[in-house]
Amino acid sequence: QKEVEQNSGPLSVPEGAIASLNCTYSDRVSQSFFWYRQYSGKSPELIMSIYSNGDKEDGRFTAQLNKASQYVSLLIRDSQPSDSATYLCAVKSDTGRRALTFGSGTRLQVQP
Amino acid sequence: DTGVSQNPRHKITKRGQNVTFRCDPISEHNRLYWYRQTLGQGPEFLTYFQNEAQLEKSRLLSDRFSAERPKGSFSTLEIQRTEQGDSAMYLCASSPGQTNEKLFFGSGTQLSVL
After folding, report:
1. B101 to chain A, minimum CA–CA distance in Å?
2. In chain B, at which residue ranges do the beta strands (DSSP E only) sit?
3. Which residues of chain B have pLDDT under 50?
4. ∠A97-A101-A104 over CA atoms, to 5°?
5. Phi, psi (5° rounding) for residue A67?
6. Which of A34, A98, A101, A106 to mutate to test the interface with B (most CBs of B within 10 A)?
7. Among A5, A68, B11, B45, which residue is least crowded by beta carbons within 10 Å?
8. Chain A: nearest CA to B41, how far in angstroms?
9. What is residue B45's predicted lDDT score, i.e. its pLDDT?
């Protein structure tokens, strides 16, 4: 079992719709969770972090965390073609490895 | 430009040659990380430094790989006797450390081993 799992996609949504990206993780002691966006040929850029159960909103982005279910998600409201990218989920444990562990990413396509 | 800087952007080498990459982190960041990424995969952890101390190395990091951060500032990643399987994007990232673990990535070095 991979430490951080994401559906590779592509996830295709029409412009203006809500895109929902999901991630599960295996390490129960994970405490910090991040979403990165990576455009083709570019390096990852941080878009959201979340540390507590519940929702965290930042503009059109909402991160949701459920530690009991070991599940973290990212919602993108009013999706735009410029949101088309690969979204990487990253997890940090407070024990063991101190660096972030990344999933393989979900490719999002927003259709105009 | 105060972001993470990596050089070179691209490196083409022949199998068996040695290559060295450089990373200059954001100046006030204590932690520096090296990751490797291949097409369709997420970044894969290689090693990380807290100031000049190398605190963790991935099991994936064979003895052909070595990294240094001599004065707690820039870092180098050397690959000896390159193999075709080493072809990948090598990403450097830095973070403030302590309670702030947000990583900021450089543009990466794309390595092609022929």
Report:
1. 8
2. 5-7, 10-13, 19-24, 31-37, 44-50, 53-57, 65-68, 75-79, 88-95, 104-105, 109-113
3. none
4. 155
5. -70, -30
6. A98
7. A68
8. 4
9. 93
